[in-house]
Design brief:
Length: 219
């Protein structure tokens, strides 16, 4: 079922409390896997979804990934305390450009240790990476213990591409799944990613996708 692939997302800077309430209502109605929201709405979403299986996902180091590791660990701890089930963290892209591979892996491992049995997804921001860098970060994520590698924040030059997902798939280990996000606004596009083996879709157009409509949302 398409709905089970969807992380129903609202990460716009001006997202209001009433919009988060509506997001949660839609997630319950369509039985999406999760809602993906900013950290300060985690407690609200956790309460609104307490009577259903929809998970609460939030972001860490978002959207640039430039926070220190200690800050990301604190963000994660706080989010879990407030009721988050899943964490989508952003890597420090500067470290990848500087080939500081051990630092990246240690940071991801630290966050995975913090979340424990909960789900950790690692956002690598494909629009900023060369093919070689995407291959390398896919390998690093595989060694780190993370559960998912995720294409994009949705706030950079572009979101997911089929080409990037194919490259990720070629370089990740069997224990890592792929989340495609950014620019997925219709059923045909969503299915193309699923057919490639993507396990999750991050999208603000979940309702339109499952209803077979084309979304006019820009995010």
């Amino acid at each position: 079922m398409m709905n089970h692939y969807i992380d129903h997302t609202l990460l716009k800077a001006d997202a209001t409390h009433s919009q988060i309430e509506n997001l949660c209502k839609e997630a319950k109605l369509y039985n999406f896997t999760s809602v993906c929201i900013h950290p300060h709405y985690v407690q609200t979403a956790s309460q609104l979804l307490s009577d259903c299986p929809v998970k609460v996902c939030t972001v860490v180091g978002f959207p640039l990934g430039s926070n220190t590791t200690k800050t990301k660990v604190f963000e994660t701890q706080n989010a879990l305390k407030n009721g988050a089930d899943e964490i989508d963290m952003v890597i420090n892209v500067s470290w990848l450009k500087d080939k500081a591979y051990d630092q990246i892996q240690n940071e991801i491992t630290s966050l995975k240790s913090t979340v424990g049995k909960r789900v950790l997804k690692v956002i690598v921001e494909i629009s900023l990476l060369t093919k070689e860098e995407l291959a390398k970060i896919s390998q690093i994520v595989s060694k780190s213990g993370a559960d998912f590698i995720k294409t994009s924040t949705g706030f950079s030059a572009h979101g997911a591409t089929l080409e990037a997902v194919k490259m990720m798939k070629e370089n990740i280990s069997e224990n890592v799944q792929i989340k495609a996000s950014g620019g997925i606004r219709d059923y045909k596009t969503a299915k193309a990613y699923i057919d490639l083996g993507v396990a999750r879709l991050g999208t603000s157009s979940g309702v339109e996708i499952v209803e077979g409509r084309i979304s006019n949302k820009t995010y």
